[in-house]
Design a protein that fits this description.
The chain has 409 residues and is an alpha+beta fold. It has helices at residues 8-15, 31-36, 84-89, 112-118, 133-145, 154-166, 174-185, 190-199, 202-206, 208-211, 228-241, 246-254, 273-276, 278-287, 292-309, 316-326, 332-347, 359-371, 376-380, 385-408; strands spanning 2-6, 23-27, 40-42, 48-50, 57-60, 62-66, 74-78, 99-100, 106-107, 120-121, 151-152. Helix 15 packs across helix 17 (332-347), helix 16 packs across helix 20 (385-408) and helix 17 (332-347) runs antiparallel to helix 18 (359-371).
């Protein structure tokens, strides 16, 4: 029995990056031997075991062959005869197909170290094209390591293009796709993820609503970058730069989908794009089964981001409707995330990345003004039921009028 550290742990150590997760491969062992040593089995598809003390995952060396469509369409074979090289060849990228023993002796049959130095994301073998999930994984690694100068090797991009055209991407489950998308959006350069997907034709298959934004012009006075797709990537870039959470990044990606529906004869104006985009945002949300908080914020930002930009001009009644829509009294964090998404949208424009956004503090102040309305005095006056609701609304409107007057003074 020989045990090797494999994959990301080896790659990140060689890159000088912190190692978080460690994967282990066991060569020359049987399931019975692992159990005898106290390892606990997990995973129904292939033999993976948890270490009795550390809880880390140890997998028996295995081979695989394509037996069906999609990410799960593989038959695995694990036995003591499977070599380390045979196990490594089934991995996606050369930089993930290295192993080292407990003395840090490197096993690198597919030249991963060379590709690390050349800053290349290159597939290990033609079997790469058997797994459609790898298109998303490579795009995610491109986003993660773009800052270090990594790019996708042309021959790997070509395989990704073939996969995108093959229909295999449609076989991916929503859960697997979302796992890769959500991780990629939280990388330092998530715009690279979208760019790589677009370059290989996968964006058109997975998110045609986002792909449709490229080439759609906007008024230059508000959008010096003009192209709606470029603007969307810039907004996403700002969200990453300002360390926004996943909910905000997802909303930033989807906020302008309605502009993809504008007839060409109406370009570069996009009248009512906020409302038109809601059905598209809903479709993308459902396609990937995004978590509820991501879905809700994306829809709210899509519908109201223009209100955010025009906050200082809004009538007190419109401002109150906006606050009610977000339920700012019980869900203050969601309104904060909306403000953040609006600010990223305002900054995601060529040459305006450093612009101030006074709307943010104004909106926060409005929410606080509405929240200060006390319910108890109204109860004491005898209001109840629907009448109480109307009385609270009147008092909040009064508070917002006073707030607006004070802010304008």
């Amino acid at each position: 029995m020989q045990i090797y550290k494999v994959g990301g742990a080896v790659r990140d150590r060689l890159l000088g990056k912190p190692v978080t997760d460690i994967d282990w491969v066991v060569v020359g062992a049987t399931t019975e031997e692992m159990l005898a040593k106290g390892f606990r089995p997990v995973g129904a598809d292939f033999p993976v075991f948890l270490h009795p003390k550390s809880g880390e995952e140890y997998a028996l060396a295995r081979t695989e062959r394509k037996s069906g469509r999609g990410y799960g369409g593989f038959t695995f074979h694990a036995s003591p005869e499977v070599t380390l090289e045979e196990d490594l060849i089934r991995r996606d990228l050369t930089i993930n197909a290295m192993a080292e023993d407990d003395q840090q002796n490197l096993t690198d049959p597919y030249h991963g170290q060379r590709d690390l130095e050349a800053r290349l994301l290159r597939h290990v073998s033609p079997a790469f094209a058997e797994d459609p999930l790898r298109v998303l994984r490579v795009a995610r690694f491109a986003a993660r390591y773009a800052g270090l100068g990594f790019t996708v090797a042309p021959e790997t991009l070509e395989l990704m293009r073939q996969l995108s055209e093959s229909g295999e991407l449609e076989a991916l489950t929503a859960e697997r796709s979302w796992k890769e998308i959500s991780r990629a959006l939280m990388e330092d350069q998530p715009r690279v993820f979208i760019e790589v997907l677009r370059e290989c034709g996968a964006l058109k298959v997975l998110m045609p609503e986002v792909d449709a934004l490229f080439g759609v012009p906007q008024p230059e006075a508000h959008h010096p970058e003009i192209d709606t797709g470029v603007h969307t990537l810039s907004v996403l870039e700002q969200a990453a730069r300002h360390k926004q959470p996943l909910t905000v990044r997802w909303a930033c990606l989807l906020h302008d989908l309605g502009k993809g529906l504008t007839p060409e004869e109406e370009w570069p104006r996009h009248i009512a794009h906020e409302h038109k985009g809601l059905k598209l945002i809903k479709a993308v949300n459902e396609r990937f089964k995004a978590p509820k908080d991501c879905q809700e914020l994306a829809l709210l930002v899509g519908e109201y981001h223009t209100h955010g930009h025009r906050a200082l001009e809004l009538k007190p009644s419109t401002l109150l409707e906006l606050l009610q829509s977000f339920d700012v009294y019980r869900r203050p964090q969601r309104f904060e995330e909306f403000i953040a998404a609006c600010e990223m949208d305002a900054r995601g424009r060529k040459g305006l990345e450093q612009r101030s956004y006074p709307q943010a503090d104004y909106l926060r102040g409005a929410a606080n003004a509405a929240r200060t309305v006390a319910v108890q005095p109204l109860l004491e006056k005898g209001f109840k039921g629907p009448e109480l609701g109307e009385a609270i609304k009147r008092e909040r409107l009064k508070a917002l009028k006073a707030y607006k007057d004070a802010a304008s003074a």
